[in-house]
């Protein structure tokens, strides 16, 4: 079987779950219950993992695009017999508008086939394989020509308008023709096996309703700045990665898409990271609205709970789950043979000293919305996190890139400790009698002096990744972004230049470290922000536009870019890449923005 490229996939979302559909018309990934639930299609990670394909029988030339301001994807196939469009969507709840989008999504995948010209023979292949491909379902004919698939905890009902679907053992193979002006709709409904599947939808009506729901949502969210089309598109992707029931933003819709083809750095990103918190909040504030930022903050506060002596995990499940124990799905061969395939992410067990800084910075961003007197939970959270930082900031940790070898004293982690206490001092008047701004200020100043002394490498003329290290690390580009040191400071200018020279490429990509095999898109967008703040907006704009060109044909970014082939690598769509785009575009719009 031909392995599609990561960039061949489009992203569908109902703000409950995500699906990936290839240029060849095959849905190769869908976790219908929620983003981090088991899949029913996983051909993305193994040829036998299950899929649902609708495409012409003949080879076709493909064009595709999202309906504006939606995640409804229209793919046009041009064949020798004629042209046909397939429009795919995860259905919105009928009548959902504004922030109701995703609250009660029905878990129905809708596919509408429209004849544009000629007479085009089509083929449908439905091969469900629940539980990441471990289960082979029983298939049963249903009244009206549908097929019911049941296995383990899952029930799926496939239906088509005017189509008599028949199963052959564990799959459905169905051929039909579409002529110009003719429309054929299909819907695939998910339910837990002990519940009745959702009532049958009219696929055309459901599709129209879903378009309206997305358009109404985006209409209420305005962005007024540079690169408006790209920012609006990235904001739509972030909305699509939001688990609407809780407000959490998933880092990606997939697991184990590799950072290097054939490599083992394959991780499950279908959870929500606190490290990304302030960056995500800033992007939502810029390109969405305060309501979404506030809901994300409320999710984080609930997830963290009371602060104890143990460090706060760097990530949580989408409903606040803490234990995300990782295991190897050894029965899956991996994307292009890249093993292991991981379910869960053991980074939740790591010590990550940067987490409190991200959370307290988010409180600072929202402090006007939180009122003059913070709720008890917010006060206790900030005081508890600040106290943790003041006591533990000298410890080593696993760093921003979540290394799984030795802990180190990472510069970026220490800087986020400084951020935590700097913002806690500013928030102290709203934190009640347990606030200790005098101690926090003293430790904050000690952290700053330590970073300036021990993070600087005199011979290299740059801040490096960790104290005592001679290795450059692109995470230091974060220093001006969080306000630790101006980009115009001589040492910061020198650091930016060194990172660009030694970790950058001629076309604007930036690697995280010198042995990183690919460019990391977030770092490229950080470099853009640094150059703007250093007074080089034109060069920043050039690099920004080069980074924009790394998106796939429907505007999606994965995590990284292969330096040789230019192929996208890593999980898709990657929230951090789209967050970086939004924040860099805003920096180009307003260089003084925080």
SS field, number of helical segments: 14
Calculate the terminal CA-CA distance, rounded to whole Å: 49 Å
The major sheet is characterized as: 14 strands, antiparallel
Radius of gyration, whole Å:
24 Å
The tally of strands reads: 25
The low-confidence runs, each spanning 5 or more residues with pLDDT under 50, are: none
What class do helices, strands and sheet pairing give? alpha+beta
Helix content: 25-40%
3D shape = globular
Strand content: 15-25%
Average pLDDT over all residues? 95
In short:
The protein has 594 residues and is α+β, with helices and mostly antiparallel strands. Helix content is 31%, strand content 21%. The model has no long low-confidence stretch (mean pLDDT 95).
Descriptive overview:
This protein has 14 helices and 25 strands. By secondary structure, the protein is of the alpha+beta class. Strands 1, 2, 3, 4, 5, 6, 7, 8, 9, 10, 11, 12, 13 and 14 form a 14-stranded antiparallel β-sheet that branches. It is globular and about 75 Å long. The protein starts with 8 loop residues before the first strand and ends in a 5-residue tail after the last helix. The model has no long low-confidence stretch (mean pLDDT 95).
Task: List the SSEs and their pairings.
Layout: E1 9-13, E2 18-22, E3 26-30, E4 51-56, E5 61-66, E6 73-79, E7 82-90, E8 108-127, H1 130-133, E9 138-142, E10 146-151, E11 154-160, E12 167-168, E13 171-179, E14 183-192, H2 203-219, H3 228-240, E15 242-243, E16 248-249, E17 272-273, H4 277-287, H5 290-304, E18 315-316, E19 327-328, E20 342-343, H6 355-370, H7 376-392, H8 411-427, H9 437-454, E21 456-457, E22 462-463, H10 478-481, H11 490-503, E23 518-520, H12 521-533, H13 537-548, E24 560-562, E25 568-569, H14 575-589
Antiparallel strand pairs: 1-2, 2-3, 3-4, 4-8, 5-6, 6-7, 7-8, 8-13, 8-14, 9-10, 10-11, 11-14, 12-13, 15-16, 17-18, 19-20, 21-22, 23-24, 24-25
């Amino acid at each position: 079987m031909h392995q599609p490229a990561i960039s061949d996939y489009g992203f569908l979302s109902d703000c409950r779950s995500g699906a990936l559909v290839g240029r060849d018309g095959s849905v190769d990934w869908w976790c219908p219950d929620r983003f981090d639930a088991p899949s029913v299609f996983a051909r993305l990670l193994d040829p036998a993992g299950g899929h649902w394909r609708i495409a012409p029988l003949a080879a076709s030339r493909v064009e595709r695009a999202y309906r504006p301001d939606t995640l409804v994807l229209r793919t046009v196939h041009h064949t020798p017999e004629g042209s046909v469009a397939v429009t795919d969507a995860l259905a919105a709840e009928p009548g959902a508008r504004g922030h109701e989008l995703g609250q009660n999504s029905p878990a129905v995948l809708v596919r509408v086939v429209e004849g544009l010209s000629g007479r085009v023979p089509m083929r449908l292949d439905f091969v469900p394989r629940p539980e990441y491909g471990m289960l082979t379902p029983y298939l049963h004919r249903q009244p009206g020509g549908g097929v019911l698939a049941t296995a383990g905890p899952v029930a799926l009902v496939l239906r088509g308008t005017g189509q008599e679907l028949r199963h052959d053992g564990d799959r459905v193979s169905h051929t039909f023709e579409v002529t110009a002006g003719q429309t054929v709709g299909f819907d695939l409904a998910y339910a837990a096996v002990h519940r009745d599947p959702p009532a049958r939808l009219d696929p055309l009506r459901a599709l129209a309703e879903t378009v309206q729901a997305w358009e109404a949502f985006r209409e209420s969210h305005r962005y007024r700045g540079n690169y408006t089309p790209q920012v609006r598109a990235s904001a739509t992707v972030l909305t699509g990665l939001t688990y609407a029931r809780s407000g959490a933003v998933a880092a990606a819709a997939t697991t184990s898409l590799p950072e290097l083809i054939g490599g083992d750095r394959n991780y499950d990103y279908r959870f929500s990271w606190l490290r990304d918190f302030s960056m995500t909040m800033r992007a939502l504030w810029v390109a969405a609205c305060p309501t979404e930022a506030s809901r994300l903050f409320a999710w984080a506060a609930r997830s963290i709970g009371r602060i104890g002596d143990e460090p706060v995990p760097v990530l949580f499940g989408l409903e606040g789950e803490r234990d995300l124990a990782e295991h190897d799905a050894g029965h899956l061969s991996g994307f292009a043979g890249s093993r292991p395939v991981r379910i869960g992410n053991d980074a939740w067990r790591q010590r990550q000293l940067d987490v409190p800084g991200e959370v307290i910075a988010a409180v600072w961003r929202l402090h006007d919305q939180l009122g003059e007197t913070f709720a008890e939970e917010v006060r206790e959270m900030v005081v508890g996190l600040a106290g943790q930082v003041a006591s533990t900031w000298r410890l080593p940790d696993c760093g921003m890139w979540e290394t799984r070898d030795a802990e180190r004293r990472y510069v970026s982690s220490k800087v986020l400790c400084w951020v935590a206490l700097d913002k806690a001092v500013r928030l102290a008047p709203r934190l009640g009698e347990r606030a200790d701004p005098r101690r926090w200020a003293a430790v904050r100043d000690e952290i700053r002096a330590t970073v300036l002394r021990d993070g600087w490498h005199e011979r290299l003329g740059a801040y490096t990744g960790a104290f005592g290290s001679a290795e450059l690390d692109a995470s230091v580009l974060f220093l001006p972004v969080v306000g630790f040191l101006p980009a115009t400071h001589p040492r910061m200018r020198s650091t930016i230049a060194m990172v660009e020279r030694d970790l950058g490429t001629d076309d604007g990509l930036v690697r995280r470290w010198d042995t990183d095999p690919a460019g990391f898109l977030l770092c490229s967008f950080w470099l853009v922000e640094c150059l703007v703040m250093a007074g080089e907006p034109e060069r920043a704009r050039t690099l920004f536009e080069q980074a924009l060109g790394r998106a796939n044909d429907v505007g999606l970014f994965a995590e990284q870019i292969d330096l040789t082939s230019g192929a996208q690598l890593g999980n898709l769509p990657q929230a951090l890449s789209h967050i970086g785009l939004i924040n860099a575009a805003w920096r180009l719009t307003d260089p003084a923005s925080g």
